Amino acid sequence: MPKNKVVSLNKLKVACKNCGLAKLCLPLGLDSGDIDQLDAIVQRNRPLHRGGHVFQTGDKFRSLYVVKTGTIKTYTQCPNGSEQVVGFHLPGEVVGLDGIECDKHLCSAKALETTAVCEVPFGRLEELTSSIPGLQHQLFRLMSREITKETGLMVLLGKSTAEERLAAFLLSLSVRFHNRGFSPVEFNLSMSRQEIGSYLGLALETVSRLFTHFQEESILLVDRKHIKILDMDQLYNLLSNQTTCLDRLQAPN
Amino acid sequence: MPKNKVVSLNKLKVACKNCGLAKLCLPLGLDSGDIDQLDAIVQRNRPLHRGGHVFQTGDKFRSLYVVKTGTIKTYTQCPNGSEQVVGFHLPGEVVGLDGIECDKHLCSAKALETTAVCEVPFGRLEELTSSIPGLQHQLFRLMSREITKETGLMVLLGKSTAEERLAAFLLSLSVRFHNRGFSPVEFNLSMSRQEIGSYLGLALETVSRLFTHFQEESILLVDRKHIKILDMDQLYNLLSNQTTCLDRLQAPN
DNA sequence: GTCGAGTATTGATCTGGATCAGTTTTAGCG
DNA sequence: CGCTAAAACTGATCCAGATCAATACTCGAC
Question: Is the same domain home to B87 and B175?
Fold first, then answer.
């Protein structure tokens, strides 16, 4: 923890109370004074470049990380070298919860584009719960939501078609962008077809074909990584039998 | 019946400190006095019969439940009526964590056989963290483990063959039984082929065929719900490319 | 600008496991 | 005990999506 990055820190130091993400993030439901206390332990390091790691499998667990801008993907490496994406994390979403159990990270987290994260040392966060009523419950809620989201994805992977999986993925992104103040119908994917496929348990060719197919059906307009949803209803209808996991994937955070 | 009831209730009132599961359960890492405090809030209701519900989707969230004896399955109901199993829970394992987020349960939990559970009112559990150092961290660890386990299952569902899935499932059970003092090589399945299939994202026919196949390969001896693992090494080898999720599924709890 | 490497698209083929269908076994019950 | 319904097994067929293969596009480096 060097203390000589005064200049870059100033540029990055958006206090939690001034941060547009506060309603989605850890401070949710805390009052102004409490947020100041939380703010005091948050470390704001310089942004990561595309490909930079927040942490890697096996690293000692010290902190949770909240995405401020950009996108983080979490993934595990299989023995044969191939990687499996386990999550995409947008601004306001927390990364690193899997590290609490064994005190070391069980997956790796890397930036898909230039990305800024807020580092929250977990030991100090745990201490803060004694002086901030509600913070403990907020953390339990956050972890419960993570469990819910993963359950939703399990259900999706267990019994849905490729079409349903991609539709659910796009709708999840749509809702999450919307919650963050961006357009729910037009956005850029920061991940490759390969990464989408890995996350959804599909081959990259299948993902590519589905984009083409959705475009032919006038559900989407696809230009490389730029997506425009033309017919939201039709996209929802593809999931009519999957409302359970859809609800879960659309959880507010 | 009335006479028996008293006796059986007395028999059920095993204090946490005398419970054989304490090393796997919430009291893990707490000292004797702390366990007494925890014990004081735990409710031990009469056992559930096969098919009885611990809670159902939409119920208000009040408590976590720890399986004492028997097995609980958690599942969600799809709009079309079919159900999707999301977990099987053995003695010492906690059920209900998904309810914290929205203050209501998002899945249902029912007994697969006669099953006793310890009910832990969550509000009181949260209060207890202020007087029991370490309990908060233990709860965070517990939830982190849940996230880890679900991630492991996601990976399994995303990219593994039917054979690998069933092998991983059996090995997971084996380890969990072993941790609970039972034989790791011989046990009874409390769930149907249908339920195993639902959990693993397979058709019940596929599960049935795989049991036959494993038996032909002298990996297993299968007699209806009774399983004997004849060749543990071969079962492991089926997962050679899947060590990541194997580790996760074998998490101590 | 050209080059080259990564990424995406599209087509052709193959296959694991779903689905359908029929049979057998088991468990529950009057 | 036999009757019934659910669960399990087994065989035959089919198809969604993987895999293999070839081509096209994008973008940064020089």
Answer: no
> Which residue segment(s) compose the domain that A103 sits in?
6-133
Report the CATH number that the domain containing residue B156 is assigned in CATH: 1.10.10.10
B71, B15: one domain: yes
Nucleotide showing the shortest C1' distance to residue B211 CA: D9
A145 located within any domain: no
Q: Taking the C1' atom of C7, which residue's CA lies nearest?
A: A192
pLDDT in tens, B115-143: 999 999 999 999 999 988 889 999 999 99
**Residue A222 covered by a domain:** yes
DSSP string, chain B: -HHHHHHHHHHH---GGG-TTTTTSTTTT--HHHHHHHHHH-EE-PPBPTT-EEE-TTPBP-EEEEEEES-EEEEEE-TTS-EEEEEEE-TT-EE-GGGTTTTB-SSEEEESSSBEEEEEEHHHHHHHTTTSTTHHHHHHHHHHHHHHHHHHHHHHHHH--HHHHHHHHHHHHHHHHHHTTS-SSEEE--S-HHHHHHHHT--HHHHHHHHHHHHHTTSEEEETTEEEES-HHHHHHTTGGGHHHHHHHT---
Domain end marker among A104, A133, A162? A133
Same domain, A155 and A225: yes
Q: What is the mean pLDDT of each run of 10 residues along chain B (253 residues)?
A: 44 74 82 87 89 94 95 87 90 95 94 94 94 91 95 91 95 94 94 96 96 95 94 89 59 47
- Best mutation target among A28, A131, A150 (most B Cβ atoms within 10 Å) is A150
pLDDT-derived band at A3, boundaries 50, 70, 90: very low
* pLDDT tier, A12 (very low <50, low <70, confident <90, very high otherwise): low
Same domain, B122 and B174: no
**B240·A79 Cβ contact <8 A:** yes
Are A86 and A14 in a shared domain? Answer: yes
The count of structural domains within chain A is 2
**Cβ contact A145–B101 (<8 Å):** yes
